[in-house]
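Why predict the complex rather than its parts? Because the way molecules touch one another can change local conformation, and only a joint prediction can capture that. The input here totals 808 residues.
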Amino acid sequence: MTKNRLEAFSDGMFAIILTVLVLELQVPHLENNTLAVFVGAMSGLLPKLLSFVFSFFIIAIFWVNHHHIVHQIEKVDAKLLWLNNALLFFACLFPFLTAFIGDYPTNPFVVALYPINMALSSMVLSAFWKHAFVNTTLAPNKLTQAQKQKRIRQDGMSTAINLFAAALAFVWVPITLVIITVMPLLFVVPEFLSNKTEALQE
Amino acid sequence: MTKNRLEAFSDGMFAIILTVLVLELQVPHLENNTLAVFVGAMSGLLPKLLSFVFSFFIIAIFWVNHHHIVHQIEKVDAKLLWLNNALLFFACLFPFLTAFIGDYPTNPFVVALYPINMALSSMVLSAFWKHAFVNTTLAPNKLTQAQKQKRIRQDGMSTAINLFAAALAFVWVPITLVIITVMPLLFVVPEFLSNKTEALQE
Amino acid sequence: MTKNRLEAFSDGMFAIILTVLVLELQVPHLENNTLAVFVGAMSGLLPKLLSFVFSFFIIAIFWVNHHHIVHQIEKVDAKLLWLNNALLFFACLFPFLTAFIGDYPTNPFVVALYPINMALSSMVLSAFWKHAFVNTTLAPNKLTQAQKQKRIRQDGMSTAINLFAAALAFVWVPITLVIITVMPLLFVVPEFLSNKTEALQE
Amino acid sequence: MTKNRLEAFSDGMFAIILTVLVLELQVPHLENNTLAVFVGAMSGLLPKLLSFVFSFFIIAIFWVNHHHIVHQIEKVDAKLLWLNNALLFFACLFPFLTAFIGDYPTNPFVVALYPINMALSSMVLSAFWKHAFVNTTLAPNKLTQAQKQKRIRQDGMSTAINLFAAALAFVWVPITLVIITVMPLLFVVPEFLSNKTEALQE
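Output of the joint prediction:
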């Protein structure tokens, strides 16, 4: 098992998961060609559409993070391989949870499942990183002890925020929905606006 | 994130989007084995079939254009990566819009959505190109100022035509359908007949 | 557009088309846990299952043939690219036609569509080969004139057999079904039994 | 046909098969937002969810085993190619069998189909290995006669266990379900806990 195979396989799965999301968007029924009927149908589709949008970017972020990590790894061992499979397992659940939240956006149990799966995915991705950068020498040891601890703290924080968002669903569902929707923006927008034109590739 | 990963990931998504299109083609119900029933069923399938055909070639054209651009790029930065993800996001919507137009080919709102999504995809692809060739040095700076302005004008024109086609749906739906169907032919046929046998590769 | 991209993209599409075939296999309804009910349900599933089996191997054969050709090609031009897209277009129709034949295995019109699509795919693959090996120098010119003519004759024969099989559906449907089922075996079995252990790769 | 193409194609198919599994998870119907309704719905989903989980890891194991073999192969011949296609054929059936077992977890005939397909897949993978390592020189001849015989015995054992698990479904269905669920754990957990940090790649 080389690193390239793990990369190509994970890429394939992330690409399919992203595309499968759109299969949940069912064509609505339209009684006639009036604007009112169209607007009504599209409003009914809105929860599905919104959950498609934020899921697309959440999974895209997981993909980007996954690759930033794998890019720096030089070797693959059996444990890393199965941590990767575990990550893909939780990633595979997103299309189902996206459809679920699209159908029941006001149900706290359903809405809470989503950030819980994000927390589990974050935990596995963090374990994946830790295995490569801290516990083994699969990645070249360039980070200081302080940098490693900072990263572990950040990953823990990310998991905690997701679990907290899940808990908030039982206080007031919309808070959780707002957190899920805004979090990917908080990640993508700064990167997009940063004007850091230095290339990611060496 | 290397250029190869971005290419492979985008290839994967375009391939899946093209294949997912065919999932919208549902087997029709046939009462008996007569020609009349078969022709009737296939006629009923015609809007779905036609929307499958032109969507297939429209997405294939986006894929070809995407690769002509990426082929010349040498480096990838965070902004380009997220412009690429945005392009794939709009590309992902095509199977849904194809099914929608297949079900309601006479509804101006539904039909208009399709060229609007084409306009949005064109705009993102144009921003993608501009970021690599004009705003940064991700692609080698071989184009003259005049060539760059010509390309930007062409991309703007393409977006304008799509938005105009969307507007025309509210005048007479068939015009928009004809434009959507004919536009990919206008792109593919000349390339096909050109007899330019010089290889695209280096 | 490099040859590798065309290969990877086509591989991706063939892989997805093969997997999408299985989505047509719906879980049957079982009244109870008796053998009789199980056998009844599986018998009802048989046309779907059989059409899945032969479609899987027919598409696999197209994939293998496609790669034997592309393997020897050194360059790609615009025409070859669009002939490839046309081939993938017809390949994409197989899951739909497989489901159709699985639902109406006694309907001559439905059954005839399948070999017609095989004929169209064969014709495009033949044009693809001819463009690379005869009309251009995309593939190195190693074949004699006689070899080229033999190949063109064989491809024409293959198309003719498929069209003939389509016509036979209107005489007696089972003949066509047998031809579709047996043809892939005639291709795969000799290769499998040949014991030619020389590697395909140089 | 080079080894890389066979690898990439198989990777693609395994990735799609794994993702297609999740399509079988349908969003349940929830009457209201109470815990009782949610727990009831999720309990109803449990067989589907469990069959998704063990299928995911069973297919992942097949993928890992497939690559351990292909990694050591240096050449590909026609027979190996078609053994690979046969393996992918049986792998493709898993999503259907997973959905089937998820719908009828108490039906011995349905439950038995699953380990039978595992036995068939194991047999083909074993023939694949044997063709490359014993009957031909596609893989470099590094193994002793004893090692080869051990591997053939192990593969035979694996097939036998699966057929035995299938037979047990007619004694008491839960035994078979437990075997199917526990077997992947018996494979993954030791690898995971082994702390063998030596990289798999050279």
